């Protein structure tokens, strides 16, 4: 499976997200007032993910909401 970062939004707010090749979408950023800020967030996330992978660290997804973990 492959993944891509997308920047979306309009003059009212922009955000970055990760989209998988199967069409599943995960939003990864809060809303920003400029497109440049959303792009910077995506760039920082990608650099961090690549570095974690390079040094052999696992990339984790954690539920830190404090809510009941059952879906």
From TrEMBL:
It comes from the Bacteria. Gene3D superfamilies: 2.30.29.80. This is DUF1508 domain-containing protein. The lineage of its organism: Bacteria, Pseudomonadati, Pseudomonadota, Alphaproteobacteria, Candidatus Pelagibacterales.
């Amino acid at each position: 499976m492959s993944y891509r970062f997308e920047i979306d939004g309009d003059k009212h707010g922009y955000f970055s997200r990760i989209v998988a090749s199967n069409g599943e979408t995960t939003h990864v950023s809060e809303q920003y007032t400029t497109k440049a800020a959303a792009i910077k967030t995506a760039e920082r996330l990608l650099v961090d993910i690549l570095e974690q992978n390079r040094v052999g660290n696992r990339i984790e997804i954690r539920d830190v909401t404090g809510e009941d973990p059952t879906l």
